Amino acid sequence: MRRSLPIFVVFLTVIVAIVSPTHAASRAKGEPSPPVILVDTALIRFIIEILPDSTDFCVTGALDSTRRGTSETALLFQTLRIACPDQLAMQKAVRALKDCKEIKIKKLRHDLEKARSSDPAGYRGMTVRFEWQGQERTIQLLTFQQLRWLLWASTILPNDSKADTKANRSYAIAVSDYLDAIDRGESPTKIPRATDFGLPQRLDLYQPLADDEIAFTDAVAEITTSFACGITAFTPTDFALAEFKLLATNETFVETDPGMFQWQCREFFSSGQVLTNIKTLSPESFRQLEPGNYAFAVGADNTVRFAKITEPNARRWSQFPHALLFCNQPVLTSGNFVIERDTVVHFSRINIRSHTLLGNLATQAEPRQLSDQRLTTLGHFFQALDRLSISYHGILISKY
Questions:
Q1: Hey, how many other C-beta atoms are within 10 angstroms of the C-beta on 86?
Q2: Among 3.30.460, 3.40.50, 3.30.70, 3.30.1330, what is the CATH number of 32-203?
Q3: Sheet holding 37-38, edge to edge
Q4: What average pLDDT does this structure show over 242-267?
Q5: pTM assigned to the model
Q6: Residue 189 DSSP one-character state
């Protein structure tokens, strides 16, 4: 029987990071690595500063900087994105951009699904072209459900608009309508199936999952690293913490593949949970934390997002999948931490346990060995706490 896994969610902003997404290690040996992506951290920081409540938004880099197609279509995959929890938040974000005196909006475009036939059918987001610091920039605003559509469309819709078909476009619109109903708080009707449009089942929004999607690990497993061996948990010395930070590379990973991410989203929303539980870690938000378990992840721009873990109420998945923290975008590390409060709020434990921590990478390495490698990525979390001047003295570290 599947164990439900706790989760934490956290947000931070800093640093220019060069990212090489390992997206599930490409799942197959010998497959070429994804292109390196430059994260425009300066623009991300600026956008977060002007948003009405930055903790409600997830600002991420380009989805696919190499995407081909018409200029309008390629733009959707090559530009910075602001993922908003719902339509109301998206309206507030647009208003904040319009009111900002440091930028000059040159073009605002919405509802591309009603535009030219060369545009991707079903797109419901918004693109904003503006001038900032003497340069022309473009950003994209989407609700979380609209972003789900874009993530699905990125793997389903052809790069070349000439290869598009009426069936593809009709199904893309049907999927968009289905997710839009969720966006508006309605009970969505029947889930659209690719076969209903004469398309293969592999194009479904909820693709069939393989039996090996999850790699199970022992609840207790010894740690084998350069600074801790033969133990299952330890409180790090100053030397061990220095090693953590030294060994933390800029290599990133994605929590789940696109198909599993859509399944997790369905289970999450059908259980009545909401995205507004995700917050940004800051000295202020840290001081307000209540005792309990939290899920966290550190983004490619060194932003930390977190959310409190409640009792499981979803049928299949963990009650707050880590992948939701950064909209299934590459992260530097993820796991769970425990907060306690006596005279002050403090961290008591941390681990790298997340819902599918090893599932997508198990074909590349033995799970226990891989988890030892992943353990060292906690150095990114400690570096983030250092920048925020948040103490983690005496924290207990474990793998699971």
A1: 17
A2: 3.30.460
A3: 37-38, 18-21, 251-252
A4: 88
A5: 0.81
A6: -
